[in-house]
Amino acid sequence: MPVGTKGTVKGLTPGDLRGAGAGVVLGNTYHLYLRPGADIVREAGGLHGFSGWDGPMLTDSGGFQVFSLAKTRRIGEGGVRFASIYDGSVHEFTPELTTRVQEDLGADVAMVLDECPPANAGREYHAESLRRTARWAERCKEAHGREDQALFGIVQGGLHKDLRAESLERTVEIGFPGYAVGGLSVGESRGEMLETLAATATLLPEARPRYFMGIGDPVGILQVIALGVDMFDCVLPTRLARHGAALTPDGRINLKNARFRRDFGPLDPECSCETCAGYSRAYLSHLVREDELLGHRLLTLHNVHFTVALCRQARAEISAGRFAGWSAAWISRYEGK
Amino acid sequence: MPVGTKGTVKGLTPGDLRGAGAGVVLGNTYHLYLRPGADIVREAGGLHGFSGWDGPMLTDSGGFQVFSLAKTRRIGEGGVRFASIYDGSVHEFTPELTTRVQEDLGADVAMVLDECPPANAGREYHAESLRRTARWAERCKEAHGREDQALFGIVQGGLHKDLRAESLERTVEIGFPGYAVGGLSVGESRGEMLETLAATATLLPEARPRYFMGIGDPVGILQVIALGVDMFDCVLPTRLARHGAALTPDGRINLKNARFRRDFGPLDPECSCETCAGYSRAYLSHLVREDELLGHRLLTLHNVHFTVALCRQARAEISAGRFAGWSAAWISRYEGK
Q1: ipTM of the complex
Q2: pTM score of the predicted model
Q3: Which residue in B43, B274, B283 is closest to A51 by CB distance?
Q4: B273 and B301 in contact (C-beta within 8 Å)?
């Protein structure tokens, strides 16, 4: 899922996203609640009407942003108080409020409010937190009324496998049409992340979508797919683009590098996106060096196209029963080994 | 002519420009000479090959930027020395060099190197300067070799009608396939500009294109068309867009204004561009308030489309023999009178 933080995948139109083959687009409740406000989005016909994207959409609950962005916050049983990164104004997210806000935003999938403690928060804290998150999940389910919107639960528990199992059990007991694994990819090592995910993913109900929150590098995507994950989101492909970096089957390249100034070939000869079809590495290199809007746009388009195409290919390889071998070969080429 | 300063009309692809009906796209020799360098553009197949725009193109000589941007410059009979705005490195533009650079850039129309003194530079200085500019024009013509590229002359002379007449006579005597009026729209009042232009434009050869350098507001465009001008360029429509301002038949509006936050109608109901067809003022207002790339892109697209459509309409009204009446009514609506 490409991330449209503030109701737009930075630089791209809905038409561009369709052209890139994007399936679900993600919006951030934290940002949209503060700017322009859920009331305006609702009056515009929800995020679909507001942004013009008519495909599937998912909104997070805003919990992650409260815990990662806010300087001031106070968490209690009721919810979490925080100061807006925009103007310092104080707000409180409760399970009921973030559910109502997401109903106003009107995405096809909404998420429960969860706490996402740092990996090193301590076992005691993680245990306390996951139980509160489970209580919040129950309140979210209770508050949720839109029948045309799915509400997904979130599993927490840090890097503690037994706490993950407890969180999963509590969340599945409440019952949701889909489940996310949260609180990973937040500073721990890739190995710790995969180990924890492996212990969690296999316990998730097989008939429900499994959503890993916050991964978007090509290798990471293939690694979590291998563990049974169906959905994931990350700003990485779009953020990299705005820093001049492009994804290719032979690894990530930075177009600011001097060797691209006279490279008149396409960005990725195997890619069919508008950027690779129409422009040279030399031109893209010039655009990103000059911080030109078109450079951000064209690289974003490519990185989204590339990532979506990778996922489609992975799906095809799974269907054909050759995912493991294909994935290993793909990663080895990407990592230049 | 939309301005593609550094080889890109900021935020737009060649496809967008075609869709907006753009005819000629302008590139700035000053910037392209310094970044990425004329050699790289030449190796890429000229500006057309480099940028992917396959329609007509014009490059200026870089003279205007040297005189308006450079902190340090020294002008002599040979040319003008200046310090790059990018890194302070010292360069010299001579008539021969800017002609060769423009041949490398390979636009369909190139311009002679001219000096563009401030309006208040004094009569003596303007007289001296226009004569040097005429001598430079001769050297440019001498140096120019590409037969698939037209080289236009430039008339200077400040606000002095007799000096304008002298500059025009000297430039026409050298003989060019097209002529530009330079050194106006640089700080003098609109009235002074139009008066000087009126006295100049009527003396320009009728069978050659007349290019007014540096005007792009809708009213100004109609005013210079009324005086016989065929071509003009300005960053105004694209720069305004990046500041959140949009052109409409009822005047310029700034989408950061609070009244647009809940305005769910199109930007300009009479416009057929992608922006007006697909997005509301409320969404565009949100994007520009949040400084989103997509906001810059969509407003730029609209402003270019709007300005090009205005020029097409003006051409149709001229053909139908009703330009004066139509133009007066258009301006009066735009100015809200």
Answers
A1: 0.97
A2: 0.98
A3: B283
A4: yes
